[in-house]
Each structure stands twice: as C-alpha cells, then as structure tokens.
C-alpha cells in the first residue's frame, strides 16, 4: 500500500460519518404528505387503479404514471374520476 | 367523569407498556382511582412491568366471557393505593376481545374509577382498534426514527376516524405526543431526528420527551415502573408528563445534551463566584 493510500485510509477513519437525520426528515415529510392524502379514500382505490391500468394496458401501451384515479366526496354522492393520458402515437 | 386514555403507537416495541405502567402509577399517585388494562391479548406483559405476574388468576377475557367478575380479575397494585391492573389473557384466539365485551368492562369500571389507561398492542388489528375505540385521550408513543414516526401518523388517521367519538360525531379525543427513547447526544451528532423535526411532522401537542435511559431496563427487571425511580431521568420525565397531562405547565427537560466536562467545570466555577 502506498503512503498516500495509507494516509487516506487513516483520514477516512477519523472522519465523522455523514449526518443522516435530515434525510429522515425529508423522506418522512414526503411519504406522510402522500399518505395523508390517501387517508380518507377507501381501501379499494389502489386496487381499482391497478385493475383499470391492467385493462387499459391490454389495448394501448400506456405508462403507469399516466393513469390517475380520484374519488371526490360531494354532498350525498361521490365522484370517481379517471384520467388516462394516452400517448400520441396510439391515436 | 371517568377519562379513558389509550397508549398507542402502531409500531411495536416503542415503549407503550413502559408508558402505560408509569402513567397509571403517576395518575394514582396524584390521588386518582386508576385502572390499567392490558389489551395485548396473547402477549401479556403489563403484569411483568407492574410486578404482579404471580398474582394473575383471572384476566380481561375471563371477564368478557363472564367466567369471572371484574372484581375477581382486577389486581390491586402493590406500590400504590387506588391502582388496579386488569391483565391480558394468554389465549391465542384473536377474536377473544369483542366490542360489546370491552364496552361492558369499561362501563363497569367507569362507575368507580377516575382514569382507565388502555395499553394497546402494536399493529392496527382488532386489539389495537378496541384499545382506542372508547378513548377520550390518546397518548401516541413515538421513537425518533422513521418507521415509528410514520406509523404514529397512521395511528393519528385511525384515531380521527375509527373511534366511537369520531363515528358518533362527538368532539374528537385529545391527542398527545410522547417522544420516547430520545437521545439528545445523537440528535446533536445529527444521527437522530430531533424533537423539533418530529413535532413538525406529526403536528400534535407534545406531552413530553422520555430520554433513552438505563433506568427503564432496571425498572422492568424489578417490576417497579420507572416513574417510581424518582432519581432517574426517565422517572422524572414521566412524572413531568403526568403533570402536564393534568394541565400543569412544566418546562420540558432532558432534551438538551448534558454539558460536557469542560462546561460543567466552568459552570461550577461560575457558581462558586456567585
Ligand atoms: N426510555 C427508554 N429508555 C430505554 N429503553 C426503553 C425506554 N422505553 C422503553 N424501553 C425498552 O424498549 C423495549 C420495549 O418497551 P415496551 O415493552 O414498553 O414497548 P411496547 O411499545 O409496549 O412494545 P409492544 O409493541 O411489543 O407492546 C423494552 O425493552 C423497554 O425496556
Ligand atoms: Mg406492550
């Protein structure tokens, strides 16, 4: 091992490990905001979204991100909204 | 009016049972007649932490199934008067707890007790749901660690929708954050989420911070809840938290790193000159 190599290893050893708590905070803020958005939605929504995606994918090549299912509660009824962005080439 | 408190967390092993035991002792110590119930069916542990494991004859499920009366099943605490423990059953039948059964037990306890502390099991299954269902207050026990914080937020969602109060449109239960196993040293090093971080993310009122403490293991070894160890940091932190729960204004402690030896000497010198 060269001297330079040795010195660099010693320096590595002495270096403090990188701080990680800010990663924890950032990741939590993102995932919790997402999960709070899903909180009031019924459990079947995610499954429905997946099934719809599979059906549509049978006919057109779509990208997973291109399907959005949303449930909006209004007084006395709910609106299930389905948004699919089809690529230009398929039309 | 009897108050029902649930100690909950979602994630396992964060300190719910430790907290239930100390809170129950703390409330009884203030003169309130208190019952603490172990909802962790199949994994009874509150009895060990309270030091009454050898006096368990009947349990929560026996009472629900009317195999024993509530008075027969309640164990009088050996440390403090006015405190009673209702142990969990060790049955493997996960349907042993029923909504009607729990309702009946809580109703009967409400006739004579001031506080009922419900030690929730981990997870979001039946035991956890029933532990929170009738609650007037929830203490959400959280460790400064990503999965615990996320699970706590999930429990907050359930507390606001899957409780009797929520379902009947009554005023919501009061939520309290209890941050446990906190290590100011690791926070200062940047290795641990800080109190401010967790507080900002969960955004519910802070009841207290319990430091990571060797006194907790000592307390469970001997079966004397840590709040009774008045010399210890964790014991004092629990005493403070109980005081705050009862509406007292008590400044938070054990949230800063202890001064290093240099600072301590310096402080000592300063004090001497005063
Ligand atoms: N402040 C603390 N300092 C050090 N250790 C602690 C502290 N609080 C709890 N512990 C330890 O953490 C472990 C789990 O605690 P406890 O049994 O109270 O958690 P729990 O949330 O009830 O677990 P479960 O989800 O299994 O019911 C125990 O070994 C306990 O001694
Ligand atoms: Mg427990």
Description:
The complex is a heterodimer of chains A (91) and B (274). Chain A has 91 residues and is α+β, with helices and mostly antiparallel strands. Chain A is built from three helices and two strands; from the N terminus they run αααββ. In chain A, strands 1-2 form a two-stranded antiparallel ribbon. In chain A, strand 1 (67-74) and strand 2 form a beta hairpin. The N and C termini of chain A lie far apart (63 Å). Chain B is an alpha/beta fold and 274 residues long. Helices cover 42% and strands 16% of the residues of chain B. Chain B is built from 13 helices and eight strands. Chain B has helices at residues 16-29, 46-50, 60-64, 70-73, 99-110, 126-133, 146-159, 164-167, 184-188, 195-202, 214-222, 233-245, 261-273, and strands at residues 3-8, 34-38, 75-76, 83-86, 115-119, 137-142, 174-182, 206-211. In chain B, strands 3-4-2-5-1-6-7-8 form an eight-stranded mixed sheet, sandwiched between helices. In chain B, helix 1 (16-29) packs across helix 12. The longest helix of chain B is centred in the first third of the chain and has 14 residues, at 16-29. The A-B interface holds A 16-17, 19-22, 24-25, 27-29, 31-32, 35-36, 39-40 and B 145-146, 149-150, 153-154, 157, 161, 187, 189-194, 197, 201. Bound molecules: adenosine-5'-triphosphate and magnesium ion. Residues 9, 12-18, 40, 121-122, 180-181, 210, 212-213, 216-217, 220, 234 of chain B line the site of adenosine-5'-triphosphate (ATP). Adenosine-5'-triphosphate (ATP) binds next to helix 1, strand 7 and helix 11 of chain B.
């Amino acid at each position: 091992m060269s001297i330079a190599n040795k010195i660099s290893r010693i320096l590595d050893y002495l270096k403090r490990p990188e701080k990680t708590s800010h990663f924890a905070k950032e990741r939590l803020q993102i995932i919790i905001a997402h999960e709070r958005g899903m909180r009031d939605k019924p459990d079947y929504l995610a499954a429905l979204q997946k099934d719809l995606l599979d059906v549509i994918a049978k006919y057109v090549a779509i990208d997973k991100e291109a399907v959005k299912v949303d449930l909006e509660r209004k007084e006395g009824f709910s609106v299930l909204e389905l948004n699919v962005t089809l690529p230009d080439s398929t039309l | 009016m009897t108050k029902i408190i649930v100690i909950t967390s979602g994630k396992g092993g964060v300190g719910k049972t430790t907290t239930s035991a100390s809170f129950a002792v703390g409330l009884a110590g203030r003169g309130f007649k208190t019952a603490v119930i172990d909802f962790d069916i199949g994994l009874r542990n509150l009895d060990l932490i309270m030091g009454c494991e050898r006096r368990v004859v009947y349990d929560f499920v026996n009472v629900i199934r009317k195999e024993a009366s509530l008075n027969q099943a309640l164990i009088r605490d050996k440390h403090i008067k006015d405190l009673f423990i209702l142990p969990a059953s060790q049955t493997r039948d996960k349907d042993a707890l029923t909504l009607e059964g729990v309702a009946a037990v809580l109703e009967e306890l409400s006739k004579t007790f001031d506080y009922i502390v419900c030690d929730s099991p981990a997870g979001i299954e039946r035991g956890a749901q029933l532990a929170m269902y009738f609650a007037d207050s929830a203490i959400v026990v959280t460790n400064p660690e990503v999965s615990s914080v996320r699970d706590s937020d999930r429990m907050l969602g359930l507390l606001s929708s899957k409780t009797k109060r929520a379902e009947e449109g009554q005023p919501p239960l009061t939520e309290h954050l209890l941050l446990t196993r906190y290590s100011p040293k690791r926070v200062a090093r940047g290795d641990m989420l800080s109190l401010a971080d967790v507080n900002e993310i969960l955004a519910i009122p802070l009841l207290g911070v319990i430091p990571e403490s060797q006194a907790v293991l000592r307390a469970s070894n001997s079966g004397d809840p840590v709040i009774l160890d008045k010399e210890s940091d964790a014991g004092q932190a629990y005493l403070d938290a109980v005081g705050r729960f009862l509406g007292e204004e008590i400044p938070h402690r054990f949230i800063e790193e202890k001064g290093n030896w240099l600072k301590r000497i310096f402080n000592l010198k300063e004090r001497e000159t005063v």
